[in-house]
Specification:
The protein is mainly beta. The chain has one helix at 2-20; strands spanning 25-30, 33-34, 45-51, 55-62, 68-78, 81-87, 100-108, 113-116, 121-123, 130-136, 139-140, 151-167, 170-174, 179-186, 189-190, 193-194, 198-207, 220-224, 228-229, 233-237, 241-247, 253-257, 260-264, 267-272, 278-286, 289-298.
Length: 302
C-alpha cells in the first residue's frame, strides 16, 4: 500500500512537472487571411514562432476536420529562436485550396511533441463588389478658398475593404481602414500642388483584407475649374457696352481691360469697351488663377 501511494505521488509529481515546463514553441504570429490568387504582397500566409531550443520540424497545414492538406516541411533543422514559414494556399499538387479556415501543425522530432496552432488562416479568393453611392461636386476648384475645394466619393462594398481612387489612371487615394461603407476625398492636387484646369476621369476600386481587388468602376467625369470665360475672342465697337459670362465659384473675380479694372460677382460680366480701336486683353482672375480673352475694338460706324 505504501509502495502504491509512493508510485502515485511520483507520477503526479512528474505530470505536474511536465505541465509546468514552458512550451517548446512560443511567440506565434500567424496571418489571419490571404488570397493565393491576388498577385499581391498578401498572396502567401506567414507562420512565425520561436523555438526554445534547436530541433527538426515537420510542418503541415490541416483543414477543419484535421486532415492534412499540405506538407510544407519534413525534418528540416532549425536553430533556437525565430522561425518563419510561408504557405502559398495550395495543396501538395499545387492546386489552390477551397475558401475556408486552415491551421498550421508543427511537429518537433527531438522534443516528440506536436502543436496544432490555434490561429486559423482563412483563404479568401473572392473580390468585393463596389457600388458608387454619390460623387459631389463634379466641378471643383482646389484654390484654398473652401468653396468646392474637394470632391467626395461615397461608396458601398459587399464586404469590408479599403477604397481606392484612380484619376486619369493614377492612384490618388486609399482609405485607411477596411469598411463596408466609406468615402474617399480628393482635393484635386498632386504633391500638394493644385492641378491644371480641365477635364479629369476618376474610377473607384477596393481591396479586401485578403488582397483581392474589386473591378474598377466605370469612368466618373470631373472638371477642375478656377475661372473660365464663355468666349476667348470678343469684337466690339469702341466705347460700346458688352457682356461676357464668367464661371467661377469664387465670391468675387477681378477684371482688367485697357487700363480699367474692378471687382464683380461671377455670372454675367458687363463692361465698356475702350474708346480707341485696337486689340486689347481682358484678364479675369480669382484666388490666384487667371484667364484671358482677346478684345478687338473697332471704330464706330458713321
Amino acid at each position: 500500500m505504501v509502495a502504491l501511494l509512493a508510485a502515485t505521488a511520483a507520477a503526479f509529481a512528474l505530470t505536474q512537472g511536465l505541465k509546468n515546463q514552458p512550451a517548446a514553441i512560443f511567440g506565434t504570429d500567424v496571418d489571419e487571411v490571404f488570397s493565393p490568387v491576388c498577385g499581391c504582397d498578401s498572396e502567401t500566409a506567414s507562420v512565425a514562432f520561436k523555438l526554445r531550443k534547436p530541433d527538426r520540424l515537420d510542418v503541415a497545414v490541416v483543414d477543419g476536420s484535421e486532415r492534412v492538406v499540405r506538407t510544407i516541411e519534413l525534418g528540416r533543422a532549425y536553430e533556437q529562436g525565430p522561425v518563419e514559414i510561408e504557405w502559398d494556399g495550395r495543396d501538395d499538387a499545387g492546386k489552390v485550396l477551397p475558401e475556408g479556415e486552415y491551421q498550421p501543425r508543427i511537429r518537433l522530432r527531438g522534443d516528440r511533441t506536436t502543436y496544432t496552432l490555434p490561429n486559423p488562416i482563412r483563404i479568401d479568393v473572392t473580390p468585393p463588389q463596389l457600388q458608387v453611392v454619390s460623387v459631389r461636386p463634379k466641378i471643383l476648384s482646389p484654390d484654398g478658398d473652401r468653396r468646392r475645394d474637394r470632391v467626395t466619393f461615397r461608396y458601398r462594398l459587399t464586404e469590408p475593404g479599403r477604397g481606392l481612387l484612380f484619376v486619369n489612371g493614377q492612384r490618388r487615394g486609399l482609405t485607411r481602414f477596411p469598411r463596408q461603407e466609406d468615402s474617399i476625398v480628393w482635393y484635386g492636387k498632386v504633391e500638394r500642388r493644385a492641378l491644371a484646369p480641365g477635364p479629369y476621369t476618376a474610377r473607384l476600386a477596393a481591396v479586401d483584407p485578403a488582397g483581392n481587388t474589386a473591378e474598377r468602376t466605370g469612368p466618373i467625369q470631373l472638371v477642375i475649374r478656377y475661372v473660365t470665360l464663355a468666349r476667348n475672342r470678343i469684337t466690339v465697337t469702341a466705347g460700346a457696352r458688352f457682356a461676357l459670362r464668367v464661371s467661377s465659384d469664387a465670391r468675387l473675380v477681378r477684371w482688367s481691360l485697357g487700363g480699367q479694372s474692378g471687382l464683380a460677382r461671377p455670372g454675367t460680366l458687363r463692361l465698356r469697351a475702350p474708346l480707341q480701336k485696337g486689340r486689347f486683353t481682358l484678364t479675369v482672375s480669382a484666388n490666384g488663377h487667371a484667364t484671358r480673352a482677346a478684345v478687338f475694338v473697332l471704330e464706330p460706324s458713321r
